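seq as requested:
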Amino acid sequence: MYRKKQFEKRYLIIIGIALVAILLVVLSVALTRDRNLSFPEKIIKDSGTFIVNIASTPVNFIKGKLRENKEKNDIYDKYKDLKDKEDNLNNITAENDDLKSEIKKLKKELELNTVLSDKVFTHATIINRNIDYWYEEVTIDKGSKSKIKKNMAVINSDGLIGTVSKVSNYYSTVKLLANENMSDKISVKIKVNDDYVYGLISSYDAKTNSYTVEGISENIDIPKKADVVTTGMGDTFPSGLFIGHVTKVTTDNFDLSKVAVVKSSVDFDKIDYVTVLKRGDK
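struct tokens:
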């Protein structure tokens, strides 16, 4: 019985406080009319306003925190969106640069058509290159089905690259001129004024990207930067395929002939597209 009375008393106190608060709020609102307030009315109005402010403070605080958190989330979402767009833009820029480079290389290869009128040619793409044989050979995406045959010359827009050494139906292996284990000497001619002197490429130095041309018997001063091209002698290389420029001229060990160092016109680290040649009468 005691507990029941205590419980009822507690409820009566809560209800009384609630009624007082409601009364004060109602009075504070009612007393907002444009008139002079008496002293008791002032006390009632101030008390009601104070209670309303106290009651609304935590609510306003929570609202402010929720609004602040929402603004932070909105800012983060915008940042994430901009970051994604930036990453996507970087990818597009890189892809665009790659495409520009590819187009430039293809244009250079296609320009060969104007200087190869006496030769039959087939354009191809390098599809494989073994890191262990980087300067020895590459694989291209054309084979016998494209009329590629062994010993055909292979060039790019910068000059002579090598020869076809193996052929399957759809692929071919190209032996590079940069192969330091060069077995066949290549006949070349060096332009001196309006004439040519002849020699043989005997070796290649990967460190300097240069060939050694030996057997130059003519007693003629060979200027630096003189052009070096193939002679067309033999069955492999047509005449006039560009090799590079002379950078140095010395004499052999017996002082009987000259030896020229020729800087290759081809960067063998950067070959992607090639052209396979054969003479037009073959």
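The longest strand covers residues 195-205.
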